[in-house]
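Researcher: Good morning. I'm working through a list of sequences from a screen, and I'd like to move beyond sequence-only analysis. For each chain I'm collecting a predicted structure so we can compare shapes side by side. This is the next one on the list. No need for commentary yet; just the structure.
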Amino acid sequence: MSFAAGQMPDALGIIVACHLETCSHCRQRSAFYERLGGEILLATEPSEVSPAMLDTLLCRLDDTASVAANENVALRSGDTPAATEIKRIHNLPKPLRRFVRNEFSQLPWSGMTRNIKEFVLPISGGGYTAKFYKIAAGKELPVHTHKGNEYTLVLDGSFSDNAGDYHKGDFILADTQTIH
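Model: Good morning. Structure tokens for this chain:
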């Protein structure tokens, strides 16, 4: 419901938007809440707003359209990645594509270990940090818990822990009680 209302911090909203691309059940729930929000707006009494509000809103929409157009041009420009890298970018969920211009291997990964790397996305805030993790196949993470909530979306491959097996598109929540 928070996602449909646009009330999530960016990092959490991105992971939910990515999950919605692969989960028809959750997409239907989100659409239900969007319709509900629309019905509430229709039933709400109109209120006066500043005469400049429409102009301000239209300017903001123009700015957003301009940014989106520039992002599409950047992917088609002469400085684009090789064709295989472009294919890899387009395998990413759509909400993440603006943050990844190159093949994953070209991202500025920082090493936690030789087999575990991370890349922090530039959308952190509101108490959330968005990261990509790259974990070598067949490698195990040390047993651990969390200081807060950890939301995981499997983008590629799979992994398992004591709670189950997770595959591409799966959304997992771990909290302070989770040990995995």
